[in-house]
Amino acid sequence: MSKLESFLTMQLETTQAFERKMREELEDVGIERFNREHLELLAAFLKFHALLERLNLEHPDETAWREVAETLAFLRSYATRHLEAEEAVLERAGFNGLPYHKIQHAIFNQRLDAYDKALNSHDASKILGVKYNLFNWFFNHINKEDVKYRELLQGQAL
Fold first, then answer.
1. Structural contact between residues 93 and 158, judged by C-beta atoms closer than 8 angstroms
2. d(CA 158, CA 156)
3. How is residue 28 annotated by DSSP?
4. Largest CA distance in the chain
5. Of 49, 63, 73, 112, which is least surrounded by CB within 10 A?
6. Rounded Cα–Cα distance for residues 65 and 51 (Å)
7. Class of the 3-153 domain?
8. Is the confidence at residue 41, as pLDDT, over 80?
9. What CA–CA distance (Å, rounded) separates 74 from 54?
10. C-alpha of 58 from chain center
11. Per-domain residue ranges of the chain
12. What is the pLDDT of residues 3-22, one digit of tens each?
């Protein structure tokens, strides 16, 4: 089952069960700080997801759009700090995969820019895929890319 199929299936469960499964899906990257930040980003993604669901189910007013924009701004800010810190640690550790890792982070930031533009249009039909794309990138990046540095950094004081 693909990550998107898993995500769609889990949405049919209770909010608590869905959130628990999403947390369980995240791989341990070997650095407690990054694991904690990944969980905090997941919480923000889940809030963002719930807000987008609300936009799809009702005729959103300006307050709803503002709340979505504020949540996306928080996600961008938090993600930027996390990604910059991660890159700095990987550079100090001499992580061979850093150039590719930075490209992946840049792609994520480009996607956030595109999502911001879609949200600014206030057209709910343009944001249907946003939540799935965010989750897909987030989980694929952590579970396939971030785990590559686990062995190199595990146990190091950061």
1. no
2. 6
3. P
4. 50
5. 63
6. 9
7. mainly alpha
8. yes
9. 18
10. 25
11. 3-153
12. 556 655 555 566 677 778 88
Please answer whether residues 60 and 41 qualify as being in contact, where contact means their C-beta atoms are separated by less than 8 angstroms. Answer: no
- Residue 30 CA, chain-centre distance (Å), reads 18
Q: What percent of the chain has pLDDT over 90?
A: 29
Dihedral of CA 2/110/113/148: which sign?
positive
Enter the tokens of residue 150: 């686990």
Residue 11 is encoded by which pair of tokens? Answer: 């949405």
Specify the pTM.
Answer: 0.80
Exposure class string for 16-49: b at 16+ Cβ within 10 A, else e? eebeeebeebbeebbbeebbebbeebbebbbebb
Question: Do 49 and 15 meet the contact criterion of CB atoms below 8 Å apart?
Answer: no
Tokens of 86: 């991660």
The type of residue at 32 is E
Nearest Cα to Cα of residue 46 among 69, 20, 65, 64: 20
Residue with token string 């007013």:
61
Q: Which of left, alpha, beta for 136 (phi over 0: left; psi -120 to 50: alpha)?
A: alpha
List pLDDT tens digits, range 80-101: 999 999 999 999 999 999 999 9
